[in-house]
Each structure stands twice: as C-alpha cells, then as structure tokens.
Write a structure and sequence with these properties.
Elements: E1 10-15, E2 18-23, H1 36-48, H2 56-63, E3 74-77, E4 81-85, H3 86-105, E5 119-122, H4 137-162, E6 166-169, H5 176-184, E7 188-193, E8 196-201, E9 203-206, E10 220-223, H6 226-233, E11 238-241, E12 245-251, H7 260-274, E13 280-284, H8 293-301, H9 303-306, E14 310-312, H10 317-325, H11 330-342, E15 357-362, E16 369-371, E17 379-381, H12 385-392, E18 405-409, E19 415-419, E20 423-428, H13 431-434, H14 437-452, E21 462-465, H15 470-479, H16 482-487, H17 509-518, E22 523-526, E23 542-545, H18 548-557, E24 570-571, E25 577-578, H19 580-583, H20 587-597, H21 600-607, H22 615-618, E26 656-664, H23 671-674, H24 685-692, H25 710-716, E27 735-738, E28 744-747, H26 748-757, E29 762-765, H27 777-785, E30 788-793, H28 798-806, E31 810-813, E32 830-834, E33 847-853, E34 859-866, H29 871-878, H30 882-893
Parallel strand pairs: 4-5, 4-9, 5-6, 9-10, 12-13, 12-15, 13-14, 20-21, 20-22, 22-23, 26-29, 29-30, 30-31
Antiparallel strand pairs: 1-2, 3-11, 7-8, 16-17, 18-19, 24-25, 26-32, 27-28, 31-34, 32-33, 33-34
Helix pairs in contact: 1-2, 3-6, 14-18, 14-20, 15-20, 24-25, 25-27, 27-28, 29-30
Length: 894
C-alpha cells in the first residue's frame, strides 16, 4: 500500500458511472516525452511510493530519463500479477509450501506465505505427443499425461485450495501465453484496495520467458526465474535498472507469399544483430495501427529470442477490437479506453517520443524464411534453404557422410530410405504461432490444397498439431479444414507446449533405431520459438523454425535437402508435378476465412469454464491443509533443502579458495544445456536414481515434469546430451574430469558429489551469452546444489544472471576483451576469488580478483567484473539467496 503521494497524483476516473481511484501521470513533469513502456513504469512508482524503497527521487529520475545514458538508476517495479506454467510453477509451489514450514520453525505465521498479487498457473508443459496421426490421439495423450503426472496435479490442486489468490488452469485448456492474451490479461487492472476500486495498468512477471507475448496487448511484462516470481508473489518488488528503450518503426504491409512468422524471424535476426539484451523494445509509428493484434503478440512472444527484456506495442483501436473479439466485457473495454486516454497511454503516432536507439522494418520487404539448425536468430531465406542445409550438414554428419542413408522396414509394411536431412518431425505447435489465426488458417488452406492434389506427408514424418487454445480447433472445424489437415496426418494431439518444450514424444521405434544405429543427422521442423540443440528430440540433431504452412510443406517434401522453387512436392492424379506455389494459400481467402470462422462466441464457450477442467481433473484425490503432507516415497514432489539449518542471522559471505572447474563451456550456452527439460535415459544419474526408487523406464517422464524433485534435477544439471565440456575432447553430454580421482572422466553429478565430500568448491567457465534461452530457475538451483560458487563468463543473459544471484552463486565476467581462451585457461587450474567479503560491509565491489594456478605452478591473475548490478541483488546474495531474504523479512514482519 502506498503511504506517500509526493506529486499529488491520486485522483478519480469516472467511466460510465463507475468511479476508479487512479494515479495521474500528468502530475509528473516530463511524463509525456517518455516511451509508452516507461510511462507504465512511472505509474507503477507513483502508486507504490512509500518514501523508503520507492521515493520522490526515483520518480523524478524516471521522468527525466535520458535515452542515451547507460542504465544506472535502480527502481523497484511491483508487477500487478504473476503467471506460471507447470514445469516452472510446480517448484514455485514446492518452495512456497517449504517456506510455510520454515516460517513456522523460525517462529513466524505460516499463513503469511500467500500470494499478495494474483497468481495464475496454466498446466500446459506436460502433454507429450505419444500418440499421433489418429483421431483418438488427443484422448490417448491426455490419459497418458494424467497417468504420468497425477501426483504433480494433486499437489497443484492442493496449492489452489491452500493459497489465497492462486488459480490453476487444468491440463488440456491451452498454452499459458495464449490463455494469457485470450483470457487472463486484464490490460487495465481494476482491483479493490483498502475498500476503494483502483484502476492501474496490468503488468506481469511470468516463470516462462515468453511471458512477453502479452506485450502485444500493451501489457508490460517479461519472464523471470521462478525464484523471482515467488518473491513477486510474496510482495517483493522486482529490482531493476531504468532500461534503455529501442524504438522499432514498422511500415508497409506483409507481402502475399510471407507470413507473420517470417516477420518475426526477420525481426529476431535484426534485433540480435543490434544487441538489445537488457533493453526494452517498443514499436511505434503510423505503421503500428496496421499490425493486427495476433501479429503483435507473435512479435512480442519472440522477445527472449532477440534478447530484449520486453517487446511492447502501445494500446490503440486494434487492442480494443481484440479484447471484444476474445470476449472481454464491455465494461472492461470501456475502462481500457478511458484509462489509457486519460493517462496518455493511448497510441498517438503524431506525438514525438525519444528512444535510445532506432530501427525500422518495411514489412513489404519480408520474404518466406526458416531459422536453424540450432538458434532462432539464424534466419535462412527459404530460397537459400537447400544450399544452407548442404553447408550445415557438414557440421552434423560424420566426415564424408553428408548423404548417408539407411533402409527402414516398418511393422505396418511401410518401407523407405531414411537419409541425412530427413524431416522426422513436422509439428504445428507453440504459443508463438498457434495464437495467430492468419498462419494457422493458412496452414489449413495449404493442407486442403495439397490434399486436393493427392499429396501426403512422407511416411517417416511424425506429424502433429498442438494448438495453443481450444478456440483454434473451433475455427478449424467451422472453416471445414480439419478433415484436410487429418488427410495429411495433422491430427490435433493435445493443447499444450508439446514439441517446442521437447515433448515431441518418441519417434517410431524402427525409425529411432535406424537413426541411432547409423548415426543419421535427421531434422525437425516446428512452428515454435526454440530450436536449441538437444531440445526437440534426442534422435534429432538439426531443428528448424518455420511458419505453420511451411511445417506442412516440409512434411510433404520429407527432407531439408529441398528447393521449393525447383523441386516438385509430388504429382497430381494426372501425373503433373506439383510445386509449393501451386498449393500456397491466397492471403485474401485466408482473411475471408478469419472474418467468417473466428467469432467471440468461441472464446466465450472455451473460457467460460476454463478453471473447471475435465472429468480427469475433477476426480483427482486432493490433499487439504495449510501445510503440505510430504510423501517420503514420492519421486515427483519432495521437500527441497534450501532452508535446512537456516537461522534469522545471516552467515557472512566468504572468499572462494581452492575451487576446481566443474565445466569449461563455449558461447551461447543455454539454460537447456544447463538444465534440460526433455526425456532422459536409464544410464544417466537421474535415470539410475529413479530406477533405484522403483520407477520403471517407461514412467521416467521428463526432467521438466520432475522439477518438484530436487534429487532428479541436481542429477540432470549440465546433463544435456549435446553439451560440450571443453575439459574433455570430443565428448558430448553431462561429463567432466574429476580431479579428486586423477582427472578421470565422470558424470558431472558424480564428480560434484566427490568434490563436495572433499570440501572443494566449484566454478564454471563460460563464453558469450551464458544462460540464454528459457527463464529456467532450475538452471540456477541445480548449479548451486552441485556446489558451484561462481560462474565466470564473457557475458550473461539477463534472467539467468539474476537467478544465479537469487541462488547464492556469483556471476563474474572476464575483463573486457578477455576470455577463457585468451587467458589460456585450460580448466585444470585451481581458482581463488578474493574480495567477496567486502559484500559483508554493505558495499558491492565492481571487480573481484581471480587467481588461477595451473598444475605446474603457473599463475594467471585477472580482475573479474562482479555482475551484482543492484543493491537489492547484493542483499539477496548476502542472505544466501532471494528466498532466504524474503523469509527473514516475512518473519520479522509477522
């Protein structure tokens, strides 16, 4: 609650007879020159000013923002709500349950551990594509999902009853980000505070990096680690520096052959080149009004792929149209319009706003594109795709075996040659595109045109559609396109993240065996946002992002070694060659189908009972009580060790001495490399643990689904099958050298346990963009639980750096221009890090002295930059982590 109003900004807004308390931006001089996103932050500070954490000086600093200055002013941002998905949400609820017990043990009130901001969790990451290509695939996949995850779901249902202001959207309803824009997002919040109805901008942090999708609705929000999200739920503001804001001007319109997916891949490439990590991106100009809301959401969704904190569109008439289409009430739409116009948040392209940097894209220049084979920013023009594949395959196939193949005989009589480059998975999946009717219906029309020509997907392709909401299926049915999609093998297999998160499910046994036995380099094509190595399927080395119609086109081609301009997809009934141009959808027809097949009644029907769930959900046996009864036999949900032995007194932080290198890693190490989400085998440390605890191989599920069990997750840390530890030559996977055992090769987990027993602290060496990708808190939790005290890299992605601090791990950067290679660090040295103890005095040193001593006594010294960027982060580190900090404060205040 705000106790100070230095600017006299509090007032009343009347909307059609309903009065709302608001904090007027016009009370602050200079507000009108700010970019939209910073106006939202300014209102946030005005409303939460308390004279201590948020002061008049903070508000003036934001109002007088210098677009060119390097960020230096720390502010406290209080998001209006928190959103989670189940992979990251389960550990959040586990931590909250554990905190309740810890508060009790420290003499506080356990009921204080409750969300203070609305928190919503959508179960969307657990459906796996086991069944496909049949009409009952969706029912079979959901049955299997409940068998695998019933224990987790019971736990989440307990959380829904135990915690106030916490809601769970059951499985089978849609993908979190699509459910967010179509239903959960308020755009402008209306909430009773101290008996008064208050209106303010909807802002959100989420435990998934693609939370930025809601930026398309004008809602400021971004992904944070689960640890930060828990703190936000418990009323802790998010500490941040006032960012630079990049202005991105859009002009023109998308040409007939291109799609919104092609636009977003182009923007991703442009912004990665520009360098926008830690910055806001804001779209502006006359062209913004021409961009449909679904396209805005598609662009906002990809913000993590280009590295920005947020990628936001302002609110305008298109926003209101979308709110009406998706079934928001007229009262809500009226509030959004009145509030944004009153506050200067309504988009006015004639108003001049200054930005830190400028970019521009003429949409008419966008061409059909894909991205791959391992990063979303590696865009390839479709006309160059075959040539680029021929070059890239050399990095994946054994030397001289670019065109390797194997004969496959299937049990059902199918026989074919499986070659390098074969498309083994073609999946229309992921919030990025399944929320966008223009690309989804384009895929349907292409399928209809292809079926009419007698074309089918190649027999080795695993085909699937996993829509982001049930509304997609409704408009496919209304448009009469489902039968044609199904003729090509594209049956709806579930409503969830699916292939994009690594839940593509197993390939057919004979195909998988042929790939493994012959070391084939096959491919996946998906309409997703993530294509990192090892993410999509353990059998697939090369992954490509593409628009939904191109996903279908590649299923027909059956290979990445294909030129859509020159190569025929097949023959029609008369023996004529059929090319992509012959079946490509006409944009005017697609728009006509959108106008006639997508309506508000669909949204009202599907979201009217969104929290109810199906019979499977309603029949779950749910525990009750203020604290959770942990099951000592559980392999899904276990009480984590973060608070064991914790007292109210802070243990002083210490310098690091005699540390060993657990891993020496290269550039672009993602959180998928550090903490994979997908499946794992029985000979891994996690697999051995589950087998020892009576779990059969078929019931392993995935790392993501086991995130409520720290024992599985520690064993899965740095266990991605594609990670390359430079301590070893030519070895992929979760292995290292164990210097407690003469430098012998060992799994990362086993080596870490030996180091722990010997009392040896650990460090990780990395390159550029360390920790890019998903906002995966387990990448930091696993790191700390393995005994890693510091990560030394050339640069960090924002969320992972913050998560490391939140778990008590030091993020250190090599001096500018230096790296592990330029300093000739082999990883066999012992490391001492001095200067950490200065933090005990309440100060944060800019650098720490690192001394690396090699086995022959050679000493390498350098001053590493300490990436604890704000006083708040320093407090978290001193407390041993953000959760310990919050817990101590809650106990003191209870």
């Amino acid at each position: 609650m705000s106790t100070v109003d230095s600017f006299g900004s509090k007032g009343v807004l009347d909307v059609n007879g309903t009065e709302y308390e608001i904090y007027r931006l016009k009370s602050v001089k200079g507000y009108d020159k700010l970019p939209y996103s910073l106006k939202v932050l300014l209102e946030n500070l005005l409303r939460t000013e308390d004279g201590a954490n948020i002061t008049e000086e903070h508000i003036n600093a934001l109002a007088s923002w210098d677009p060119k200055a390097e960020p230096s002013t720390e502010i406290q941002f209080t998001p209006a709500r928190v959103i989670m998905q189940d992979f990251t949400g389960v550990p959040c609820v586990v931590d909250l349950a554990t905190m309740r017990e810890a508060v009790k043990e420290l003499g506080g009130d356990p009921s204080k551990i409750n969300p203070l901001a609305p928190a919503e969790l959508v179960i969307d990451h657990s459906v796996q594509i086991d069944a496909f290509g049949t009409s009952d695939a969706i029912a079979r996949n959901m049955d299997i999902e409940y068998q695998r995850n019933g224990e987790r779901y019971k736990f989440l249902r307990w959380g829904q009853t135990a915690f106030n202001d916490f809601k769970v959207v059951p499985p089978g309803m849609g993908i979190v980000h699509q459910v967010n824009i179509e239903y959960l997002a308020r755009t402008i919040m209306a909430r009773e505070v101290d008996g008064v109805l208050r209106a303010y901008p909807d802002t959100v942090v989420g435990t998934d990096s693609h939370t930025t999708m809601v930026n398309g609705l004008g809602v400021l929000g971004w992904g944070v680690g689960g640890i930060e999200a828990e703190a936000a739920m418990l009323g802790q503001p998010v500490s941040m520096l006032i960012p630079k804001v990049v202005g991105f001007k859009l002009t023109g319109s998308i040409p007939a052959g291109a799609t919104a997916t092609d636009v977003v891949l182009t923007i991703t490439e442009m912004l990665r080149k520009q360098g926008v990590v830690g910055k806001f991106v804001e779209f502006y100009g006359e062209g913004v009004g021409e961009v449909p809301l679904a396209n805005r959401a598609t662009i906002g969704n990809m913000s993590p792929e280009f590295g920005s904190t947020a990628a936001i569109f302002p609110i305008d008439e298109k926003t209101l149209e979308y709110l009406r289409l998706t079934g928001r009430s007229e009262e809500q739409v009226a509030l959004v319009e009145a509030y944004t116009k009153e506050q200067g948040l309504w988009h006015d392209p004639s108003k001049e706003v200054k930005y830190s940097e400028y970019l521009e894209l003429d949409l008419s220049t966008v061409v059909p594109s894909i991205a791959g084979p391992k990063r979303p920013q590696d865009r390839i023009e479709l006309t160059d795709a075959k040539k680029q594949f021929s070059s890239d395959i050399k990095n994946y196939a054994a030397k001289g075996e670019d065109d390797k193949s194997a004969h496959v005989s299937m049990a059902d009589g199918r026989e074919f040659e499986l070659k390098n480059g074969a498309v083994s998975i073609a999946s229309i999946t992921s919030c990025t595109n399944t929320s966008n009717p223009s690309v989804m219906l384009a895929a349907g029309v292409l399928a209809r045109n292809a079926a009419a020509k007698g074309l089918t997907a190649k027999p080795w392709v695993k085909t699937s559609i996993a829509p982001g909401s049930k509304v997609v299926t409704d408009y496919y049915e209304k448009a009469g396109l489902l039968p044609d999609l199904e003729k090509l093998g594209f049956y709806v297999v579930g409503y969830g993240c699916a292939t994009c998160i690594g839940n593509s499910g197993p390939l057919e046994e004979e195909i998988s065996e042929a790939i493994q036995d012959n070391d084939l380099s096959v491919t996946a094509v998906l309409s997703g946002n993530r294509n990192f190595e090892g993410r999509i399927s353990p059998d697939v080395k090369m992954n490509y992002l593409a628009s939904p119609p191109l996903v279908i086109a590649y299923s027909l081609a059956g290979t990445m070694d294909f030129d859509f301009e020159k190569d025929a997809l097949g023959q029609d009934a008369d023996g004529n060659d059929v090319y992509l141009k012959d079946i490509w959808p006409d944009p005017a027809e697609v728009q006509n189908i959108i106008d006639t097949a997508v309506d508000t009644a669909m949204y009202d029907k599907e979201y009217g009972s969104i929290f109810d769930g199906d019979e499977r959900w309603r029949s779950l046996d749910t525990p009750t009580g203020e604290t959770f009864e942990w099951d000592s036999e559980s392999t899904y949900v276990r009480k984590p060790p973060y608070f064991e032995g914790m007292t109210m007194d802070i243990t002083p932080v210490e310098d690091i001495q005699g540390a060993r290198v657990l891993l020496k890693l290269g550039d672009s190490i993602t959180t998928d490399h550090i903490s994979p989400a997908g499946s794992f085998k029985s000979d891994t440390p996690a697999g051995k643990y589950l087998i020892a605890n009576g779990v059969e191989r078929k019931d392993f599920n995935s790392y993501g689904s086991r995130r409520g069990n720290h024992e599985v997750m520690i064993r899965g840390t740095f266990a991605n099958i594609r990670i390359k530890n430079e301590l070893l030559d030519g070895v992929e996977g979760g292995f290292t050298r164990d210097f407690t055992n003469g430098g012998e090769q060992a799994t990362v987990y086993d080596a870490a346990q030996n180091y722990k027993a010997a009392g040896v602290p650990l460090v990780v060496l990395g390159g550029k963009e360390y920790g890019s990708g998903s906002s995966r808190d387990w990448a930091a939790k696993g790191t700390t639980l393995l005994g890693v005290k510091a990560v030394i890299a050339e640069s960090f992605e924002r969320i992972h750096r913050s998560n490391l601090i939140g778990m008590g791990v030091l993020p250190l950067q090599f001096p500018a221009g230096e790296s592990r290679d330029s300093l000739k660090l082999t990883g066999t040295e012992t490391f001492d890090i001095k200067g950490v103890t200065e933090l005990n005095n309440g100060t944060t040193p800019k650098t720490l002295k690192v001394t690396a001593t090699s086995e022959d006594g050679k000493v390498t010294e350098f001053d590493a930059v300490l990436r604890i960027d704000t006083p708040g982060e320093a407090d978290y580190y001193r407390n041993g982590g953000i959760l310990q900090y919050v817990l101590r404060n809650l106990v003191r205040g209870s």
